[in-house]
TrEMBL record:
InterPro entries: 4Fe4S_Fe-S-bd, 4Fe4S_Fe_S_CS, Cys_rich_dom, Glc_ox_4Fe-4S, Helical_ferredxn. This is Glycolate oxidase iron-sulfur subunit. Component of a complex that catalyzes the oxidation of glycolate to glyoxylate. Keywords: 4Fe-4S, Electron transport, Iron, Iron-sulfur, Metal-binding, Repeat, Transport. Pfam families: CCG, Fer4_8. GO terms for molecular function: 4 iron, 4 sulfur cluster binding; glycolate dehydrogenase activity; metal ion binding. Residues 4-36, 58-88 form the 4Fe-4S ferredoxin-type domain.
Length: 421
């Protein structure tokens, strides 16, 4: 197994001065204290492969695969070392010489590229969530030999009834295309319901786009060919020119959709990216929370900043503004709210030990706030933190929601404040 000077962007690797400042911010290093789990160590190993001093042997591959690609090191690196990009390039090389894990292959190649299968899973999940007493099912799930499936089950959200739609009034005269993410199709119908309720209730016209997966999981796992196929499909098939804005309620989708222009470098891809907005960004830009009256709550709410939203899109204030729209809520910041939760796509399934250690730290930070509501703008983070609460804080009643779900749940139906444009 050989990497090679030509196959990795060698100049990226040379920038690291080995200063070690990434130690303080790297979630994997903080739990393992192992140099191979740190940006500096990972970059050094990748360089040794690029210089043909080592092959992609298992320990080096492990060091690459345990990187969350969270970007925390990149943000704090004085030498602007792009470790997330280096890991991406390393994964491309590793894919050429190592057979990918069967589960991740199934999820990436069969499930995420097939909207019909996602819809079928969505129907099944909805039925499963609706069963009130799951004791017998959980008993059988504990016996399930496939650990990955057991872990996914633990992250399922609570069942939520469909939300009634509000009558639309024309305060926002925009035509919105809703880029529905894969987790939304397979697990989070409630999230789609919430988004439709709020956006339609504000008067905007909103339609589902006929999109496939955004391709982010493939991009971050180094499968650039599938990423490009999906991105091109989306750009060519969703008729984005018919819409003023493309919204997404997934931080990871938003992050990559906004990068289609840069990554594909075509006029169409750039035009597509220019229309993309994260739902929090959209809500605050158009003053949408002000359109509704809300139930008064006495919740303590804390906000987790998904890597692809806070660091990736610089959207941190908007989800907090959404919280402040609900009367009676107290926003309490958790320590390290911008630290990865260890979800990172299929990371929690592929790297269970490291993922759980990172998750435990996140849950401890949540518990320190005494919050009864955690908001996260990414379905993968919601599933991971939901799992974490079940695992590490089972006696606490903590709801884990997307900000748009929290907003939608608390709108007083048929009580829209602003009725005219
Ligand atoms: S990756 Fe950046 S912060 Fe980390 S050791 Fe290298 S130069 Fe320093
Ligand atoms: S991307 Fe995240 S996990 Fe990977 S080395 Fe940087 S800080 Fe650590």
């Amino acid at each position: 197994m050989r990497g090679g000077r030509m196959s990795l962007m060698y100049e990226l690797l040379l920038k690291c001065t080995k200063c070690g400042l990434c130690q303080q911010v790297c979630p994997t290093y903080q739990v393992s204290k192992n140099e191979m789990d740190l940006a500096r160590g990972r970059v050094r190993l990748a360089r040794l492969v690029a210089e043909n001093k080592y092959k992609w042997q298992s320990q080096i591959v492990h060091s690459v695969e345990t990187c969350l690609q969270c970007g925390a090191c990149v943000e704090s690196c004085p030498s602007a070392v792009k470790t997330d990009m280096i890991m991406n390039l390393a994964k491309r090389d590793i894919n050429k010489v190592k057979k990918p894990h069967a589960i991740s292959q199934f999820i990436y190649k069969k499930m995420l590229t097939n909207p019909k299968m996602l819809k079928f899973i969505g129907e099944f999940t909805r039925y499963y969530l609706k069963i009130k007493d799951k004791k017998v099912l959980r008993f059988f799930n504990k016996l399930n030999p496939i650990e990955e499936v057991r872990r996914l089950e633990q992250g399922l959200p609570a069942y939520k009834e469909d939300l009634p739609l509000l009558p639309g009034k024309a305060h926002v005269t925009l035509k919105i295309g809703y880029f529905r993410n894969c987790a939304n199709l397979a697990v989070f119908n409630s999230l789609a319901q919430a988004t439709l309720k709020v956006v339609r209730g504000s008067g905007a016209q909103v339609e589902y786009l006929s999109n496939k997966c955004c391709g982010a999981p493939h991009w971050f796992s180094g499968d650039i060919q599938t990423f490009e196929e999906l991105a091109k499909y989306n750009i060519n098939n969703v008729e984005f020119n018919n819409y003023d804005i493309i919204i997404t309620d997934c931080a990871t989708c938003g992050g990559i959709l906004k990068k289609y222009g840069e990554l594909l470098d075509t006029v169409e891809a750039k035009a597509f990216s220019d229309k993309v907005m994260d739902i929090n960004e959209f809500l605050i830009k158009y003053g949408i929370p002000d359109n509704f009256s809300y139930k008064t709550r006495d919740d303590i709410v804390t906000v987790h900043d998904p890597c692809h939203l806070g660091r990736g899109q610089k959207i941190t204030i908007e989800p907090r503004k959404v919280v402040s729209a609900i009367p009676g809520t107290i926003l309490k910041e958790m320590k390290n709210s911008n630290w990865c939760c260890g979800g990172a796509g299929v990371y929690s399934v592929m790297q269970p030990k490291m993922s759980d250690q990172i998750l435990r730290a996140k849950i401890n930070n949540i518990l320190d706030t005494s919050a009864n509501v955690v908001l996260a703008s990414c379905p993968s983070c919601i599933m991971q933190i939901t799992r974490g609460v079940k695992l590490f804080a089972p006696s606490y009643h903590i709801q884990v929601l997307h900000p748009i779900e929290y907003l939608a749940q608390n709108i007083m139906n048929n009580n829209i404040k602003r009725q005219t444009s």
